[in-house]
Amino acid sequence: MSDLNVMTAAEMAATKAAVMDQVPGPEIQGQSPLHHADLDSLAKVGPKQGGVHLREHKLLGHLTLRLNPENDDQLAAAERVLGVALPLQPLTSVENGSYSVRWMSPDEWLILVPGLEAFDVESKFRDEMGGHYSLVNSSGGSTVLELSGPDVVELLKRCTPIDLHPKLFPVGKVVSTVFAKSSAIIRRTGEQRFELVIRRSFSDYIWLWLQETSREFGLVVKV
Amino acid sequence: MFHIYCPHCAEYREEEEFHAAGQAHIARPLDPEACSDKEWGEYMFFRKNPRGIHHELWVHAAGCRKFFNMTRDTQSYEIKEVYKIGEKPSVVAE
Ligand SMILES: [Zn+2]
């Protein structure tokens, strides 16, 4: 069998996957999995004071990249596309402007980019990278919640078994874990700010769960 | 409740993030067509059930979703070690 990671230019071109722009034109409005919750209205009429703040970062581009972390060519190609090297240390993340990259597994990363740039970034990967790798646009499959505020750690302690002490869970750390009776990818983006990547099919459940669980602290929905 | 060290994430996590996937180190017959029914049946269905040291396959299901091996004492529930797929256990039954 030939080595999949050493290819001629022609072989590389032949492996190029078809890439489709999943974002329709501006005439069709995309809807987040929490569209029905109408967070924008809640932000206007809801409480302005509380221990937990919630904001949805909707309709971002979610790209799952899998490659061989020992393949320097692929690592270099990813760095050319993202402008930053893939984090190889377990449970770490990096950012470059509006791009963010999370270590998910020794050979898997979750990349978030602005929704309208996902197709562009995907196409660049296809141009830059060769060999045996996988890039999947899973933007429609999940959404992102930002949780912050003075009681955010107390809230998360009620949701996940992960130890959130700053010594064990510093800013930039990312874990994939159980969350309530669902799962979430949790990243610390500030001392009292966390990012949750949650699944579309569980987003309503998690939204209801967060409202219930944050009741004792007060929940402030933000735009 | 186990506190399990994932060798891929390189930290301890709660048991509820993991699933046990049965006995480790079961080699699939290289030529299934050449197996007798007995050989194939033993590969498919027959598993050890030791009292004491046992090598098990686990998956970090809610975390990195990678498989790894664990040596565990089925009597005391003590986890002796975890090691990656392809590695050999250092703790074995006498
Ligand atoms: Zn793991």
Structure write-up:
The complex is a heterodimer of chains A (223) and B (94). With 223 residues, chain A is α+β, with helices and mostly antiparallel strands. Chain A is 23% helix and 30% strand. In chain A, the strands form 2 sheets. Chain A has a 6-stranded mixed sheet with strand order 8-9-10-7-1-11. Chain A has a 5-stranded antiparallel sheet with strand order 3-4-5-2-6, covered by helices on one side. In chain A, helix 3 packs antiparallel against helix 4. Chain A is globular, with a radius of gyration of 19 Å. Chain A starts with 8 loop residues before the first helix and ends with a strand. The mean pLDDT of chain A is 93. Chain B has 94 residues and is mainly beta. Chain B is 10% helix and 34% strand. Chain B has a 4-stranded antiparallel sheet, with no helix packed on it. The longest helix of chain B has 9 residues. The model of chain B has no long low-confidence stretch (mean pLDDT 96). Classes of the chains: A alpha+beta (223), B mainly beta (94). At the A-B interface, strand 8 of A face strand 2 of B. Bound molecules: zinc ion (ZN). The site of zinc ion (ZN) has 7 residues of chain B, from loops.
Helix content of chain B: under 10%
CATH-defined architecture of chain B: 2-Layer Sandwich
How is the main sheet of chain B built?
Answer: 4 strands, antiparallel
Total number of helices of chain A = 6
Named CATH architecture of chain A:
2-Layer Sandwich
CATH class of chain A: Alpha Beta
The amount of helix of chain A comes to 10-25%
Low-confidence stretches of chain B: none
Give me the count of strands of chain A.
11
Gyration radius of chain A (Cα, Å) is: 19 Å
**What multimeric state do the chains show?**
heterodimer
What's the end-to-end separation of chain B, in Å? 27 Å
Structural class of chain A: alpha+beta
Q: Give the C-alpha Rg of chain B.
A: 15 Å
Number of strands of chain B: 6
